[in-house]
């Protein structure tokens, strides 16, 4: 199903940085179980991409714990301590079971950085600042990549499918990857557009709730759409 460039011009001599970046993206997608060559069902692929039950719990519980404790007690140090402590327990459990701790460690670093900022400023809404920044950076990066003709989804899929950057010479693929990348940029932009006003208003309860609602519930359908679209694209492409 994978395609190789028919000549040297198809890759348009991408820089070594682009090749390294694309290979890294493709490797990350394959590790997450998003290889379009895989014959598994779409629900299975999406569930694997989210990390299964464990990944969902590790992703959601620290934020949920902070939201619930702070809403009930308005005690910022207590809420942050329980949130960080939850992430620490997940990381310890990964190490104890000799499982790859990367996901839990990433979550722990994010939770700890957010908690440190909120403790420093004394404002509960600042616990959400790193997430707002990440959404802004992701939205900007994805949008720019699509507009300049190097759609990030295309870069990742190209290396995942073994064709490098040859997809850029195929108008159909470029169009599909453009709109998929725009869709992902739209997801992160929507999160920022909805949550930033709540942050500025200091509405911690609504901000925390919408962060959870706009997290995995929106991520999963977009993963499924991307997966199905890419599989259909390559299945219908002549060998």
From TrEMBL:
<feature type="transmembrane region" description="Helical">
    <location>
        <begin position="102"/>
        <end position="122"/>
    </location>
</feature>
<dbReference type="Pfam" id="PF11361">
    <property type="entry name" value="DUF3159"/>
</dbReference>
<keyword id="KW-0812">Transmembrane</keyword>
<keyword id="KW-1133">Transmembrane helix</keyword>
<dbReference type="InterPro" id="IPR016566">
    <property type="entry name" value="UCP010219"/>
</dbReference>
<feature type="transmembrane region" description="Helical">
    <location>
        <begin position="142"/>
        <end position="164"/>
    </location>
</feature>
<feature type="transmembrane region" description="Helical">
    <location>
        <begin position="64"/>
        <end position="90"/>
    </location>
</feature>
<protein>
    <recommendedName>
        <fullName>DUF3159 domain-containing protein</fullName>
    </recommendedName>
</protein>
<keyword id="KW-0472">Membrane</keyword>
<feature type="transmembrane region" description="Helical">
    <location>
        <begin position="214"/>
        <end position="234"/>
    </location>
</feature>
<feature type="transmembrane region" description="Helical">
    <location>
        <begin position="176"/>
        <end position="194"/>
    </location>
</feature>
């Amino acid at each position: 199903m994978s395609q190789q460039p028919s000549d040297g011009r198809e890759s348009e001599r991408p820089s070594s940085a682009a090749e390294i970046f694309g290979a890294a993206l493709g490797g990350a997608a394959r590790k997450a179980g998003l290889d379009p060559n895989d014959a598994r069902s779409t629900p299975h692929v999406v569930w694997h991409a989210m990390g299964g039950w464990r990944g969902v719990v590790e992703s959601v519980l620290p934020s949920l714990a902070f939201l619930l404790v702070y809403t009930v007690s308005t005690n910022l140090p207590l809420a942050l301590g329980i949130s960080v402590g939850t992430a620490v327990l997940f990381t310890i459990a990964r190490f104890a079971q000799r499982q790859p701790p990367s996901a839990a460690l990433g979550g722990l670093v994010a939770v700890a950085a957010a908690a440190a900022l909120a403790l420093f400023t004394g404002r509960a809404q600042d616990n959400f600042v790193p997430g707002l920044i990440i959404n802004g950076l992701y939205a900007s990066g994805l949008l720019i990549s699509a507009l300049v003709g190097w759609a990030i989804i295309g870069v990742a899929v190209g290396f995942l499918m073994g064709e490098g950057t040859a997809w850029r010479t195929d108008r159909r693929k470029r169009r599909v990857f453009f709109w998929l990348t725009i869709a992902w940029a739209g997801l992160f932009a929507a999160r920022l557009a909805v949550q930033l006003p709540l942050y500025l208003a200091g509405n911690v309860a609504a901000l925390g709730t919408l962060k959870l609602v706009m997290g995995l519930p929106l991520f999963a359908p977009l993963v499924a759409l991307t997966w199905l679209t890419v599989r259909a694209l390559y299945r219908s492409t002549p060998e």
